[in-house]
Design brief:
Layout lengths: L4 E2 L8 E2 L23 E8 L1 H14 L12 E7 L3 H15 L3 E11 L2 E8 L13 H13 L14 E5 L5 H17 L1 E2 L26 E2 L3 E13 L3 E9 L6
Antiparallel strand pairs: 1-11, 2-11, 3-4, 3-10, 5-6, 5-10, 6-7, 8-9, 10-11
Pfam families: 2_5_RNA_ligase2
């Protein structure tokens, strides 16, 4: 089996974050002798299409449109150094992927970020089979890779993260953030996207953002439970671009 595969049947695409944002020192890999401008990589979870579509729809709705350049994602590591790609990064990812079975996660609730809103993600333990009950596979995967790569990880990647989707960021208007959180909480209570794909980023709430009064025909069910099917390694380039995504599918079996 191929250890890694690029996006099946699709040309490689380039995603970019806000080019005005510069990576903080805490995101720089701690590799001696390497320049801070070296190529680095981002490692995220690969989730099933239905779940990813729901989370990406929320991001497209609430993230400032002109700044939303990357898809919804759950990040494991933010800055893996290119100088360690062949010797450490790829072998570590392949080993994890070969012995990890697919497992389920759940998007649980919106929470406040400094300049936006995130969606907390946890392993769907309550609905796991007996062999997985009580396990937290995402944290296990992160901990095992952190142990392998600990000497040269960035400050940010050296600590256990809060796994989440970012659906709004880079917003300085408190009213806009509050309105987004209110609408997101309503969506999660109902189990459907009440925004209808629309959100007033100006902060001028007309009182009908949840679609009430339009028959609710445009509301879309939220797939809050998703299956983690593998890992995606993205190339992070200077300027904030994410390119050359590689998929590493989980091929392990439950024991």
């Amino acid at each position: 089996m191929p250890a890694a595969q690029q996006l099946s049947g699709q040309p490689l695409r380039s995603f970019s974050s806000n080019t005005a944002d510069q990576r903080a020192d805490s995101q720089r890999p701690n590799v001696k002798g390497d320049g801070t401008d070296q190529t680095s990589y981002v490692l995220t979870l690969l989730t099933d299409p239905a779940h990813n579509h729901s989370m990406n729809s929320l991001r497209k709705t609430y993230f400032p449109p002109q700044l939303n350049k990357i898809p919804a994602h759950i990040t494991l590591f933010h800055a893996l150094p290119g100088s360690k790609l062949e010797s450490d990064v790829l072998p570590g990812i392949k080993q994890i992927a070969s012995r990890t079975p697919p497992y389920r996660v759940r998007a649980t609730n919106p929470f406040r970020l400094s300049h936006g809103a995130g969606i907390k993600v946890v392993d769907d333990i309550d609905h796991a089979n007996d062999s997985k009950r009580g396990r937290n596979m995402t944290r296990i995967i992160h901990a095992e890779l952190r142990k392998k790569w600990g000497e040269w990880l960035s400050e940010q990647d050296s600590t256990p993260p809060r796994f989440h989707y970012t659906v709004m960021n880079k917003v300085n208007n408190e009213r806009v953030i509050e309105q987004a959180l209110e609408q997101l909480n309503k969506s999660f209570q109902r189990g459907e996207d009440v925004s209808g794909g629309k959100f007033d980023h100006s902060g001028k709430n007309n009182g009908q953002q949840d679609g009430e009064g339009e028959g609710g025909h445009h509301h879309e069910k939220l797939h809050l439970v998703g299956e983690v099917q593998g890992l995606i390694l993205w190339r992070y380039e200077r300027g904030g671009h994410w390119t050359d995504p590689e998929h590493f599918e989980f091929t392990g079996r439950d024991r």
